[in-house]
Amino acid sequence: MAILEVNNVSIRYITGDFKDIGLKEFVMRKLTGNYHVTEFWADKDVTFSLERGEMLGIIGSNGAGKSTLLKAVSGIMVPTEGTIRRQGSIAALLELASGFDGELTVKENAYLRGAMLGYTRRFMDEKYDEIIAFAELKDFEERPFKQLSSGMKSRLAFSIACLVKPDILILDEVLSVGDGAFRKKSESKMHEVINSGATTILVSHSLEQVRQLCGKVLWLHKGRQVDYGTDVAGICDRYQQFLDGTLSIERAGE
Amino acid sequence: MFKTLKTHQFLFEELVKRDFKKKYKRTVLGMAWSVLSPLLSLLVMRLVFTQFFGRSTPHYTTFLFCGNLVFAFFSESTNQGMSSLMDNAHIFTKVNVPKYLFLLAKNAQCLINFGLTLTVFLLFCVLDHITFTWRFFLLLYPITCQVLLNLGIGLILSALFVFFRDMQYLWSVFTQLLMYASAIFYSVDNFRPEIQRIFLANPVYLIIKYFRVITIDGAVLSWHYHLLMAAEALIVLALGCWMYKKYNHQFLYYV
Fold this sequence. Notes:
heterodimer; A: alpha/beta; 2 domains; six-stranded mixed sheet; three-stranded antiparallel sheet; 9 helices; B: mainly alpha; 12 helices; 77% helix; 0% strand
């Protein structure tokens, strides 16, 4: 029984006039027949499934629909067509460093983030010191968050996020953060989480990482599923050729 | 719904805390301001309108305060509720949380504020020689109705605000009009009975009148009146819930 099943999922975005016009303008345009929206499919007919403990790498250039797909898998978005079936808890670590509140202190932000990730208060009380120690922010606990450097922010974000123990883990380019020593430390911590048996989906621009870690690969291009399978080396090779310009998308899909 | 609330209790508490801290962190007067501002508008109204309406209305200060108390709660709660969804867009686009949680947190904070002003209101009742009776406990009824009403309007407005960014402006105009239509500084007794009946369609007026009847007249309104109040609040709340259910998954495209 697959722990995650994604069947023919398509996701449609609507863009166009509506975003910045107000109610008055909307009514006027509706009346004059001057109201236009355009649709575009961020993902079209994507199908894959994962067994417990498997790791899937998603590759593709910018605008391939990777992030949208992850949002659908984590339940933030609902697919326009197709179905997603999942079992067990899910943790999506997307764009970690953003979404903190600049006015609050480091400690307050840590608790808020923990709450967002679904931790309990008791868990945060227990782990808080560990988080701060791991992030190396002992002297900054009561500082307003906006005074931190961007490196410190992502360190804190990572230190809170890496405590998750989900059945399905979704990683959007957050295998490691920071520089030098912290990069090493965070990478080995993340491997610990992955190796604890979570089913993992990894979006990465580093083909090296995908080759090394993943047992399955999904290649997306402009929302379409170019290739998918367990032949990690083969698919990565062809993706590399496509990036180098020696292989066209049409031929890669065959 | 209660089950999801239970699982998200920690997040809810943290959101209330955050809203609270952000509101009072940088102001010198802090929480005192939330009590001072309705007192100031009360003072101005007392000075200005006593000439016109005060002579014919007994306990005019309490009369005014009832209106101000209820309306300030309504106005603050709905205005802040409106932006609650947009302000937290950075959260619900990354984490799968129930979106009404942000509105609930904002409303919880406004309710605390209301509690403070209510305490001052009761102090003023003492100064205005109002006799306290057991009937004061009945005030919990209009307060409950108002919380439901505020939540309902907050749901509707915050959903609309995602789609139409000029809602903030339109709502402030509407609030202004509603303020004049809620008999805050005048009594409806001077109108013909048909006209008086129209006021009953305004849920804010219903709540204000309830406060006045309990505090100034020391009487209890009919059960029809209780029913009407609950019905109006629940209809608005139902409409709000329906909008959230319907548009829950579309908010994402608009932020």
